[in-house]
Specification:
Keywords: DNA integration, DNA recombination, DNA-binding. With 216 residues, this protein is of the alpha/beta class. The protein is built from nine helices and seven strands; from the N terminus they run βααββαβαβαβααβαα. A four-stranded parallel beta sheet has the order 5-4-6-7, with helices on both faces. A three-stranded antiparallel beta sheet has the order 1-3-2. A hairpin with a 5-residue loop joins strand 2 and strand 3.
């Protein structure tokens, strides 16, 4: 959230308060404001969410994923592993979310987006996953950064996993994320441009790795 600001209407709707109460919060220094050129106020998002989250029960969610229907038993085992982990840690589980979809098929991960809605609403204290790639292979750090902005911790039960990422899969996953989050803002032409940039960067990285291996 940081220096991002909100409009008065957004603050009133989120906090479910009246305008006089909002004015009171500003006078008390609870919400910082930025005076815009037109004389209106923009309200500091971080301050707004601090107030919002005081009245919200913070939840613990677990999220599991497998790629195909044939792995359904693996999905069940994954969920049991996460439940046992929560039991051992003393975490009360408020929600179990799971998807059967490949890592690059974000549009098919309906449960993930249900969970994400609650994260973005500031309702989730922690999300527990078995491995990093259950959430995202290429975009894990991106989600970690995003969740942290809403005071949500991602807990990874095991660091064991497929750490070697296929270059094409990285590209496809990022493109899939762009389609899910930014399809309204990116034309097909821009998507293709981004794809080419990513491919060139991955090719360059692979070339550097090859040169390094040769030097060894």
């Amino acid at each position: 959230m940081g220096d991002i600001n909100m409009k008065a209407k957004e603050v009133l709707e989120l906090l479910k308060i009246s305008r006089p109460t909002l004015t009171k919060y500003v006078k008390e220094g609870k919400i910082r404001v930025t005076v815009m050129p037109n004389g209106f106020y923009d309200y500091n998002e971080e301050d707004v969410y601090k107030i919002f989250m005081k009245g919200v029960e913070r939840k613990t969610y677990i999220y599991a994923r497998v790629s195909t229907q044939k792995q359904k038993k693996d999905l069940e085992n994954q969920i049991e592993l996460l439940k046992q982990f929560c039991f051992n840690k003393g975490y009360k589980i408020h929600g179990v979310f799971s998807d059967i979809a490949s890592g690059i098929s974000f549009e098919k991960r309906n449960e993930f987006f249900k969970m994400l809605d609650d994260v973005l609403a500031g309702k989730v204290e922690r999300v527990i996953i078995a491995y990093k790639d259950r959430l995202s292979r290429a975009g894990f750090e991106l989600f970690k950064h995003l969740f942290r902005k809403f005071n949500t911790e991602i807990v990874v039960v095991s660091e064991v996993g497929n750490e070697k990422l296929d270059s094409q899969e990285i590209i496809e996953e990022i493109i899939s994320l762009l389609h899910c989050y930014s399809i309204k803002f990116y034309s097909k032409r821009k998507i293709q441009k981004i794809r080419k940039l990513l491919e060139s960067e991955v090719f360059e990285d692979n070339s550097q790795e090859s040169r390094t291996d040769t030097d060894k």
